[in-house]
Write a structure and sequence with these properties.
Number of strands: 19
Number of domains: 3
Structural class: alpha+beta
Number of helices: 12
Oligomer: single chain
Strand content: 15-25%
């Protein structure tokens, strides 16, 4: 089973903090609300440590700087709010493990805690602004990583080294990638205007919303330069940390006031992300534009992983209903029309989670009524998951197509129809369709069973 993992993409404009921006902070209300939602998710994840990457921490051109101080402090006094401060415990053991894993992978690293000129233990605004929303009380031990001018693939490799270090120490680690997008969106932007700034931001938001961190490394260098960004390398590091985990990414907010693009996103196991209330109308997760239930989010990840990568995901470890053995149907729709439906009346897999993964892939690729789903159809895909309760014998008078599904049997032939389907309004229609699906003639004697479902959208 893949371990649970958690990451946040966080903007860092000091003006977004109410004590700094005052009334002006209201312009970034979507980002602030999204950071509040990310904070609630962070609390529920309850990490043992946080690794935070800041573009504004002291850096070295040809190596990464890791701060393993046992105590980190800072405030926003240089932005007029000295009372917005934090003192975070450090995690020297995790920092040392990251350095060791990086060195083993031939990644250049420097210990900030051993170099006084790099101001060890001092938090810059790239760390302080996210922490003021996510962990103002200084609850979690923290390791700060500075960026470098090394190639992006080396940044991804460092993210992978952080993951290995966390696993080595059995640390439950949250990863915060601090960074803003283009600083050149408007004529009065701090870095001047470039018409390519919005192109860059649109590309970043699209890739992050699809969880495609690897493609961040392929963005044309001239576009990156024209955008005047500061977050790309942070996001690539996060991608390395998430690589192979099966985590789902959901974009919570994007906005571009004052000529700078601000992106807020979270990445975690499908069931944890699916339970998140979306704070802003523009939020996106995977290819879904609305908050989805946990079963549907899991089905969507399974389908997208298989269609895009040919990979069947290993569902994350679950407790509660997801860990039970239940039959389930996964139904796919595009523009309101059925695009595939496959299910199991009785469980065939060890858990409901694995049942959903298997049936989702089958519905997308093996329903004989439809061709396999194509990648270009994924953004339009709606999904419904029906989890079946145990069927019971029934007479015709016991049926209700709005409330119960029906199973018809005649010899070895068996047909099923789910409840509450559009256009199926009477018992006769429901039984007739189920019989036709099973190849049972109108005058043959059938045995009836009814069942309830828990339907998720």
């Amino acid at each position: 089973m893949a371990e649970e993992i958690f990451g946040i993409i966080a903007p860092h404009p000091p003006i977004m903090v109410a004590e700094v921006g005052g009334r002006r902070a209201e312009v970034t209300v979507a980002s602030a609300e999204s950071m509040a939602a990310a904070s609630r998710l962070l609390r529920s994840f309850d990490p043992q440590a946080v690794v935070l990457v800041s573009p504004h921490a002291p850096l070295a051109r040809d190596s990464f700087v890791i701060d393993g101080s046992d105590r980190l402090t800072g405030d926003l006094g240089s932005f007029g709010a000295p009372h917005v401060d934090t003192t975070q415990p450090g995690d020297p053991a995790l920092a040392a493990a990251i350095i060791a894993e990086a060195e083993a992978a031939a990644i250049p690293v420097t210990s900030r805690a051993l170099n006084p000129s790099l101001q060890p233990g001092v938090l810059d605004h790239g760390a302080l602004v996210p922490l003021s929303f996510l962990d103002r009380d200084g609850r979690y031990p923290i390791v700060v990583i500075s960026l470098s001018y090394l190639p992006l693939l080396i940044h991804r490799a460092l993210g992978m080294a952080v993951r290995r270090a966390a696993e080595l120490l059995s640390r439950r680690v949250a990863f915060i990638a601090s960074g803003d997008l283009s600083h050149r969106l408007t004529a009065d932007a701090p870095a001047g205007y470039s018409p390519r700034g919005r192109d860059f931001d649109a590309r970043i938001v699209d890739l992050i919303s699809r969880g495609d961190y690897r493609s961040l490394e392929d963005i044309d260098h001239s576009l990156v330069q024209a955008a005047g960004e500061c977050g790309l390398r942070s996001f690539v590091l996060l991608g390395g940390y998430l690589q192979g985990s099966g985590a789902v990414t959901r974009v919570l907010a994007y906005e571009g006031p004052w000529g700078v693009g601000y992106l807020t996103a979270v990445a975690a196991a499908a069931d944890r992300i699916a339970g998140l209330e979306t704070p802003t109308a523009g939020a996106k997760g995977g290819t879904a534009e609305e908050t989805e239930s946990a079963p549907v989010a899991l089905a969507r990840v399974a389908i997208e992983s298989y269609i895009r990568e040919g990979r069947i995901i290993e569902p994350p470890a679950h407790e509660g209903p997801f860990a039970e053995r239940r039959g389930a149907f996964v139904s796919l729709y595009i523009d309101g029309g059925l695009r595939g439906c496959i299910g199991t009346v009785a469980p065939t897999r060890p858990t409901l989670a694995s049942e959903i993964v298997n049936n989702a892939v089958q519905a997308a690729t093996r329903d004989p009524r439809f061709p396999p789903l194509a990648a270009e159809e994924l953004p339009r895909l709606d999904i419904s998951v029906d989890v079946l309760q145990a069927p019971e014998a029934a007479d015709i008078a016991d049926l209700d197509p709005a409330r119960y599904g029906v199973i018809v049997s005649c010899g070895s032939r068996r047909g099923l129809l789910l409840p509450d389907l559009a256009g199926v309004d009477t018992v006769a229609e429901q039984v007739g369709i189920a019989c036709r699906k099973a190849g049972i003639g109108a005058h043959e004697t059938v045995r009836l069973e009814r069942f309830c479902v828990d339907r998720y959208r």
